[in-house]
Amino acid sequence: MAQSSTPTPTLLLGAAGRDFHVFNTVYRDDPAHRVVAFTAAQIPGIAGRRYPASLAGALYPDGIPIEHEASLEALCREHGVRRVVFAYSDVTHAHVMHLGSRALACGADFVLHGPEATMLRAGRPVVAVSAVRTGCGKSQTARFVGARLARAGLRVAALRHPMPYGDLERERVQRFATRADLDAAKCTIEEREEYEPWVAAGAVIFAGVDYAAILAAAEAEADVLVWDGGNNDFPFVRPDLHLVLVDALRPDQVTTHHPGEAVLRMADVVVINKVDGAPAHEVARLVAAVRAANPAARVVRTASPPRLDDAAAVRGRRVLVVEDGPTITHGGMPYGAGFVAATRAGAEVIDPRHRAAPAIAAVFAAHPHIGRVLPAMGYGDAQRAALRATIESSTADVVVSGTPVDLASVLALTKPVVRVRYELEEVDEPGLGAIVDAFVAGRSRTPSTTIND
Known about the structure:
Blueprint: E1 8-14, H1 18-27, E2 33-40, E3 50-51, H2 53-56, E4 64-68, H3 72-79, E5 83-86, E6 91-92, H4 93-105, E7 109-111, H5 115-118, E8 126-131, H6 138-151, E9 156-160, E10 173-176, H7 179-184, H8 189-200, E11 204-208, H9 211-219, E12 224-228, E13 241-247, E14 257-258, H10 260-266, E15 269-273, H11 280-293, E16 298-303, E17 307-308, E18 318-323, H12 325-328, H13 337-344, E19 348-349, H14 358-366, E20 374-375, H15 381-393, E21 398-401, H16 407-411, E22 417-421, E23 425-426, H17 432-444
Parallel strand pairs: 1-2, 1-5, 2-4, 5-7, 8-12, 8-13, 9-11, 9-12, 13-15, 15-16, 18-19, 18-20, 18-21, 21-22
Antiparallel strand pairs: 3-4, 6-14, 10-11, 16-23, 17-22
Helix pairs in contact: 6-17
């Protein structure tokens, strides 16, 4: 049968991240498919915008609209959609297939594009850090790896999973080396949570929308690249060493979420993090689950102890705990490092709901699992103002900040803030550091894509 010359109407389901990357790598220059729209989930303020023509390419002179995911059926009917592509992360397998069922009911194919179709090939060695769930400790692990590589005398560049929440054209390629760079880019709180710790450590981190261009920019000034993953997604760049984290505090969430299960099965090394906070029998159960899913991977254990800058300042005081936003919202955690550190220090943690501004109350309503903590929501000016108002109106004596961002400075808070810091610590010997050292030594002996070539 002869193939039709009419492009297949295609709809990309996303969350301003992998969906853009899938478009760029699979569909942008493909005349056989016509992407009629992106849809948006998880991230507020994305729907109602357009993927600009300057990024969409010659086949899309008017750009591509971004619609609400709730409009899936209406979009399929309006445009005669015959292919629906799922392209976001950290959702249950059931969530994926409920969307698949909706697409199938509209008569469309339901597609998941995998690593072979979407991973870019780098000209430098790549260490990638992924996880089975949001909040496992990817970023602190990526920074540990980056520091270890730097101590070996290598120029390191980090590539962060996309967080393009502002002007997409301006954010095509982003490079951050100073706090001034973050300010100039008008980064959201969520972006600063990921970029600021790299900058504070004296490292350079790249992000944006067009990862072919981002990769080229990073390769121009680095000997080795570290992929700092987002959510539980698999890397956009093909790794030479793939580290995947699982959370010792969530032993039943190893193969429950997409694409975290796939990521686990792809891993070269599985890092079981936060073992300092979990019972030994739960860690053993987790090790068994990991080995059942990926018997070939090496397994190492690490700790992530939260430490207050000033424990005495919170002991016996009423405190409001602010936590990393994505970990507490779609990551599904009721609390994070801030709550653990505050309670261990003898603080009285108050419930932020009683003084929550309307925009923050809406977050609590959408995520009823959240405990007595305040997620650091700041995707836009309005949400940032609501976060500040909630903090300032609370009856707390002290704010305990478990988010990686300098919240007091970003929000100009008048209440005293005590920060919680958490860095990766090795438990096994030899452990993760030895694995990174062996990787460096091995790549230095390999003729192709060598370090310092």
